[in-house]
Design a protein that fits this description.
It is elongated and about 105 Å long. By secondary structure, it is an all-alpha fold.
Amino acid sequence: MLRSLKASVSAPEDRKTDLIQDLYVKAINSHKPTPTKPSDADAHVQKFSMPQVPASPEESNIANDLKAYEVQEVEVEGAAAEGEVAAQDDDWFERELEEELKDEEPKAH
């Protein structure tokens, strides 16, 4: 008797799922997508055009610029220019030690 109750209860559910599945399959089969045309992309794609050819630089200006570059003096950081005395670099570690030693000296009251 238990088997007959299960069969009668489960049978309508199976029929409902089949009905829903059948409706779904019919809807999918009846759908016909619109075919795409090559002209459909024209509104979304820009036309390609070759860029303009850049103008060639003048050879005379390049030669003059190269000569000016070769004549130019090289600047080195920390080096003295002609006629100037090079500045001495302070040794910062020694200065800090000297300042600490001055601070540690006992003060007379």
